[in-house]
Amino acid sequence: MLQPMDFVDERGTPYPTVSGFFKTFNEEMRSLYLLSFLLTADQDKAEQCLVSAMGECVEGIGVFTDWARSFTRGAVLKRAIQMIMPRPEHPDYVSFISPRGSAMPAENDPFATILLLDPFERFVFVISILEGQSDEECANLLRCTRRDVMIARVLALKRQSSTDALAAEIL
Asked: Which domain holds residue 160?
């Protein structure tokens, strides 16, 4: 005679818990802070952005566990965009070769050239190049056109290379 069997689901929950999100934040804290700092270019704003993103993630319980890492990074991106509100400059007024500002990057700060970019260029650079988002995804996040994203990325790369060349000449 067959006996009824109890099945135990050993897969666990496919959704993260609050402690799961805190664990993800804890494991990714340095990376998330760096992302926040590169976007905001300000330590205080970066901390505010990170705390705010953490709150959004706790409220957003219900996303699959496998997506928790990308969800947290997306929350940081969204919060930084809300804080800084980067907007593209009109392309007719933009010089394609001159770097912004007169400040030279500190030789011991590998992120200085990124932080010297104007906010929109910095966001495009970080989102499209460092985070690997497509032009379309970047444009959707920043609420602009793909053309704006492409122009800003080219400007950011040119400004970085011209800043690097200028620094090499001086040093």
From this structure: 91-170
The first and second tokens of residue 27, run together, are 């494991």
Based on the fold, state whether residues 120 and 163 are members of the same structural domain. yes
Whether residues 104 and 148 share a domain: the answer is yes
- Cβ pair 88, 151 in contact under 8 A: yes
Q: Token pair of 110, please?
A: 């590998």
pLDDT in tens, 35-80: 999 999 999 999 999 999 888 777 765 555 556 678 789 999 999 9
Asked if residue 9 is part of any domain, the answer here is: no
Q: Do 71 and 125 reside in the same domain of the chain? A: no
pLDDT digits (tens, 9 = 90+) for 107-136: 567 788 899 999 999 999 999 999 999 999
Supply the pTM of this predicted model: 0.75
* Measured distance CA(125)–CA(131) in Å, rounded: 9
Q: Where are the alpha helices (DSSP H) in the chain?
A: 18-40, 43-59, 68-84, 112-115, 119-124, 135-142, 146-170
Residue 159's nearest CA partner among 127, 135, 125, 132 is 125
Domain membership flag for residue 2? no
d(CA 88, CA 40): 16
Total domains, the chain: 2
CATH number for the domain spanning 123: value is: 1.10.10.10
